[in-house]
Amino acid sequence: MLQVGIVGLPNVGKSTLFTALTKKQVDCANFPFCTIEPNVGVVEVPDERLQILADLSKTAKIIPTAIEFVDIAGLVKGASEGEGLGNKFLATIREVDMIAHVVRSFENSDIVHVDGSLDPLRDVEVIETELMLADLATVTKRLDPIEKKAQASKDVTLMNQVSGLKKYKSLLEAGTLAREADLTKDETEVLKDIQLLTTKPILYVVNVNEESVGDPNWVSPLGEDRMVIPVSAQIEAELSVLDTDDMRVFLDDLGWKESGLDRVISMCYKTLNLISFFTTGEKETRAWTVEAGSTGPQAAGKIHTDFEKAYIRGEVIAYSDFVELGGESQARDAGKLRVEGKEYIVQDGDVCHFRVGV
Q: How far apart are the first and last CA of the chain?
């Protein structure tokens, strides 16, 4: 399952956000480093299409797709050198697929800021600097011995590693995230296992007060270059304990179509370049996750690993056709069911049946 790591300075609302996301209570005490072991929770990806398909198919069970969130203890300045609990939690960040960086942008005299004042951009730069310093240490440690071997052997693979690592090092030393590196295809291939922290996608979740999160004129304090969502972790925590009807009333009172957390989850899904395809019938309607650009066999392999090699064909109905015509049999009768081969690129919302060999 894909993992999103929730990071940030201490006391910015990470654990409150995590609790709301997963409805899983964790210790949110008002002091740094209260999160000692990373908490993990599985979150359903909201998708209203599932219920519509289930109603048309008279499905007994609905299974949404999901993302795993990891609540990682607050990082502080010096984390890359082991300050606080830095080394342990930088290692945890290295294992996730993307980062949700929670940034505090609300005033509250009862919640102490670790640096004594509110400055969202400064806080972001503190965390980014620690991640870059950790990456620089990783790159330097790897580059030195490989460069010597490459010079001696002239091995093409080693030489591509060296050239790619030097690009990373140059950027990191200049204070730029490693994901900005312009690597060639060969350099990317030979360095795909390096797991640099600053090559991971980052979504910045700015924790604001209630007035700001509903303000259409709200301006991000982090500039225009960072992908940002404003969220009130406190409001989301209150919403998370309500039943569906009460939550809908609360959202209507706030003038919101969806909760901030639904937007965070959906944005994480999109940031990871993921789409959903569906299978539906009387037993279950289910969403499956694949990367955008996946072929029919790759999608079938998500249902069962053996299906990718045994793939014969896909029988596919576009979601819009399935709904407009009232279900599978009607779509089939209208000629909207397509038979797709191994080269077919799965589209978001496709309703699929895969035919596989023995």
A: 27
